[in-house]
Amino acid sequence: MVLCRAAIEEFITANKVVAFIKGTKQFPQCGFSNTVVQILNTMGVPYVTVNVLEDDLLRSGMKEFSQWPTFPQVYVAGEFVGGADILIQSYTSGELSEMLEAALNS
């Protein structure tokens, strides 16, 4: 893998909620990324975004790291949660709220 796996793990672990998206949280550049940003904003939790459009190596490296072929990719407490569809499901079921609460209170 081109990117250092340890550096990715360290970044994901250092930040409780991370969304690798197309664009930024201020200007998501695809509908799926916008959906993730809107859900996280609605939840009112602190989170960081990483714009995968800025770096081809990052984009391909994250696909390999997560074994997930598309973006966005959301991590909570160092664990891969999934993309927009999974986030919508877990938000609707209340599971995301529980996951975020546990992560932010740990």
From TrEMBL:
Residue intervals of the Glutaredoxin domain: 17-81
GO molecular function, one term: 2 iron, 2 sulfur cluster binding
Source taxon at top rank: Eukaryota
UniProt keyword annotations, A-Z: 2Fe-2S, Iron, Iron-sulfur, Metal-binding, Redox-active center
The keyword Hydrolase is annotated on this UniProt entry: no
SUPFAM superfamilies in the cross-refs: Thioredoxin-like
Binding site for glutathione: 22, 59, 71, 84-85
UniProt-annotated binding residues for [2Fe-2S] cluster: 30
UniProt keyword annotation of Iron-sulfur present: yes
PROSITE patterns registered for this protein in UniProt: GLUTAREDOXIN_2
PANTHER family cross-referenced by the UniProt entry: GLUTAREDOXIN FAMILY MEMBER (PTHR10293), MONOTHIOL GLUTAREDOXIN-S14, CHLOROPLASTIC (PTHR10293:SF72)
Family, similarity comment: Belongs to the glutaredoxin family. CGFS subfamily.
Name of the protein this chain belongs to: Glutaredoxin
